[in-house]
């Protein structure tokens, strides 16, 4: 199946999240409470910073065309003002400046291996992997055709990560007690 055909399917069935992976439809379960909590709190922190500074647009869980046969839905996406033209009516028409995946127990390998490679190949400039169970955040930036580590934090660290080096992120606010 192509990305164009996939986007004609319409909305996902209840409590199932669909993506197109190398021409095949892949389903994943709904997020866990930890995943949801972490994602919401990260969106709150990033959203205020991005809006206050007029940096672009932040989105959540939107079909993102990575190539002709792959459409992923990063948990959180950021498109800089200069790249807002990629925000389409039904899907993002290219890679975001930043893709963030919040790991769930069922998505560890997909987020760390499959999406890592797919985002790299698509040209995503920055990729963050957030683990609410391990209470860690890892940041990568694209250098040529490779992701290289650009930051990391855990537990109650306060981190500054590319592309938002002026933003302090208090990780303790991202984890459920």
CATH structural class: Alpha Beta
Radius of gyration: 15 Å
For CATH, the homologous superfamily is named as tt1808, chain A
Structural class, from helix and strand content? alpha+beta
Helix and strand sequence: HEEHEEEEEHEEEEE
Helical proportion, percent range = 10-25%
Spatial strand sequence of the major β-sheet: 3-6-7-8-9-10
Strand content: 35-45%
Tally of structural domains: 1
How many H/I helical runs? 3
Shape: globular
Could you characterize what this model shows?
The protein is α+β, with helices and mostly antiparallel strands. It has a single domain (31-174), classed as tt1808, chain A, CATH 3.90.1570.10. It is 23% helix and 38% strand. The chain contains 3 helices and 12 strands, in the order H-E-E-H-E-E-E-E-E-H-E-E-E-E-E. The chain has helices spanning 3-7, 33-53, 108-122; strands spanning 16-21, 24-29, 56-60, 64-67, 70-72, 76-80, 98-102, 126-131, 136-143, 146-154, 158-161, 164-170. The strands form 4 sheets. A 6-stranded mixed beta sheet has the order 3-6-7-8-9-10, sandwiched between helices. A hairpin with a 2-residue loop joins strand 1 (16-21) and strand 2. The longest helix is centred in the first third of the chain and has 21 residues, at 33-53. The relative contact order is 0.15. The model has no long low-confidence stretch (mean pLDDT 95).
Summarize the structure.
With 177 residues, the protein is α+β, with helices and mostly antiparallel strands.
């Amino acid at each position: 199946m192509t990305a164009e055909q996939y986007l004609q399917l319409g909305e996902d069935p209840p409590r199932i999240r669909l993506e197109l992976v190398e021409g095949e439809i892949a389903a994943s379960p709904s997020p866990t409470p930890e995943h949801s909590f972490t994602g919401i709190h990260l969106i709150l922190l990033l959203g205020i910073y991005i809006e206050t500074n007029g940096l672009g647009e932040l989105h959540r869980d939107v079909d993102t065309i990575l190539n002709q046969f792959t459409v992923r839905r990063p948990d959180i996406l950021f498109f800089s003002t200069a790249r807002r033209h990629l925000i389409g009516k039904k899907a993002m028409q290219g890679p975001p400046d930043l893709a963030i995946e919040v790991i769930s127990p069922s998505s560890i390998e997909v987020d760390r291996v499959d999406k890592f490679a797919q985002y790299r190949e698509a040209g995503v400039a920055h990729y963050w992997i957030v683990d609410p169970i391990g209470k860690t955040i890892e940041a990568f930036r694209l250098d040529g055709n490779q992701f290289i580590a650009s930051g990391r934090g855990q537990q109650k660290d306060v981190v500054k990560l590319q592309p938002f080096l002026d933003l302090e992120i208090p990780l303790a606010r991202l984890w459920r007690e």
